């Protein structure tokens, strides 16, 4: 079964505005963030969605409901919204809510690098998670293995939805670092990943539920 996934980064939040790490923690959408959600909703207003998924964070739920409200008002049937922790952003543990530059310096400095981009350039994206977990005094931040085990569970939830049919469109509200991680894993160098995806941007994936995940995802568009 081939599904067309529309991944929308949630609208801007207060933590986004203040450049703070925001994984499993919550902060409200700003006025700009509400506008982000409506802009995405307008772009998707002509799409029939057979299912909708988001994390159990306020920013994802509010973005999802806005998109579904506009979609329904445009004449489409409203799918049931599934909110689940498998769709959360990476967990940053002790560094939740901290300034992003300071957090990535703490993670990278013991290894001779001092920013997120420097860690990625020298050691690869998986190292950003493992180094942050190492630097976390409580070790609550997710390791790369822990992160992907959870995220892959989200794809399994979608694939297990017996109401979906071949060719269906699925809405999924996602998060900045998760979108970057998906692109690093599945886009195979086709896009410039030096900048994070915009709040309210749309990333399109085709998901073949019959294949192992590494061969199941085809990127159709990024940060649109």
Automatic annotation (TrEMBL):
Record key words, sorted: Hydrolase
GO molecular function: fructose-2,6-bisphosphate 2-phosphatase activity
SMART domains: PGAM
Pfam family, one: His_Phos_1
PROSITE patterns: PG_MUTASE (PS00175)
Amino acids binding substrate: 9-16, 59, 89-92
InterPro entries in alphabetical order: His_Pase_superF_clade-1, His_PPase_superfam, PG/BPGM_mutase_AS, Phosphoglycerate_Mutase
Protein name as it appears in the record: Phosphoglycerate mutase family protein
């Amino acid at each position: 079964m081939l599904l067309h996934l529309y991944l929308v980064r949630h609208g801007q939040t207060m933590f986004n505005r203040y450049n703070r790490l925001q994984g499993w923690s919550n902060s409200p959408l700003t006025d700009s963030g509400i506008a982000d959600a409506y802009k995405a909703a307008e772009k998707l207003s002509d799409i029939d969605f057979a299912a909708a998924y988001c994390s159990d964070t306020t920013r994802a739920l509010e973005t999802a409901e806005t998109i579904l409200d506009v979609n329904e008002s445009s004449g489409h049937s409203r799918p049931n919204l599934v909110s689940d922790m498998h769709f959360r952003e990476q967990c940053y543990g002790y560094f939740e809510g901290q300034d992003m530059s300071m957090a990535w310096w703490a993670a990278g400095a013991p290894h001779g690098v001092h920013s997120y981009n420097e860690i990625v350039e020298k050691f690869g994206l998986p190292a950003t998670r493992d180094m942050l977990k190492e630097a976390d005094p409580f070790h609550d931040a997710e390791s790369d293995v822990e992160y992907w085990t959870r995220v892959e569970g989200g794809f399994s939830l979608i694939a297990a939805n017996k109401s979906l049919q071949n060719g269906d469109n699925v809405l999924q509200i996602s998060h900045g670092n998760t979108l970057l991680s998906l692109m690093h894993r599945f886009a195979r160098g086709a896009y410039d990943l030096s900048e994070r995806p915009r709040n309210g941007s749309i990333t399109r994936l085709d998901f073949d539920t019959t294949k192992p995940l590494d061969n199941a995802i085809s990127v159709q568009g990024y940060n649109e």
